[in-house]
Write a structure and sequence with these properties.
3 helices; 10-stranded antiparallel β-sheet; disordered C terminus; disordered N terminus; alpha+beta
Amino acid sequence: MTAPGDRGPDQLTVRYSDLDVAGHVNNVAWLRFVHVGVSRAVAAWRPPGGSDRAGDGSSAVAWRWVDIRYRRAVQAVGTPITVRAIPVERPEGLLITCEVGAAGPDGRMTECVTADVFLGPPAPTALERDTPHACHASGTEPPARTGRWPWSLVVPVRAGDRAGGGSLSPVAAADLLQEARHDASSGWRHNIRGRLVVARTTFCLGQAAAGQEILLHSRCSRVGRASVELTSRGVDPAGGAVVIRSTTRIARLLTDADQEAAPWSDAERALLQDMGMSTRPGGAGTVPPNGHDPSGGCGQLDI
């Protein structure tokens, strides 16, 4: 394991298009910032000995999995964003640790997002169906229980969603997973006090086929004291290949000033646990599928 010198932070700025309907920097925008740091780190990477094995990363390596944690919200357009990306070579590929921070009025930087991104040889056409943990970072949550997917949504794949070789780009994958989260939560979020926040997302990527649609499935996989986890996957409808797999931890803030998630009430827990029953084989549950609700808002603080 070898760590190169720190190449220094990248300087970016929040734009209007980075904000969601609630006025917060969107999850996908945060991943764009991470993507900039990763791309520049890979382009500048030189393994020991001076060879150019990684090159610009366009063909030799691909994003395989991501573990991203959201810590603070940003609302102001024009906020300076600093991205620091540090690559570490491992036998199986390249692990890049990213720190994304925002500068306040006093000039001090506040950590907003941290991410671990693993790059390696391009994945097979489809992710392994029975071993999802093989795609994830060590230390992330175990794979969800098998069973039914109570929420499903078909989303068109746009031309700009594809990267080299026809695979989905990481930012496009995050965008699709946000659609899946929003669709899954649209029917029950209005029975939860406060606001739902995305605290952490892990996802792994396979090669996307040439189809023009992705079928997104989601289910509630775990109910914690003050959080709930949604497991989602993206499937190529033409051949059934799983091209995205993800677990997202969602918590609840009662007020904007809260720094910690508030525990669920008994009624909220009963609602969430009832959704969890929907993942058991043969159990349809009482929460029906819901269509995408664009008026609800989606982003870091309102999914």
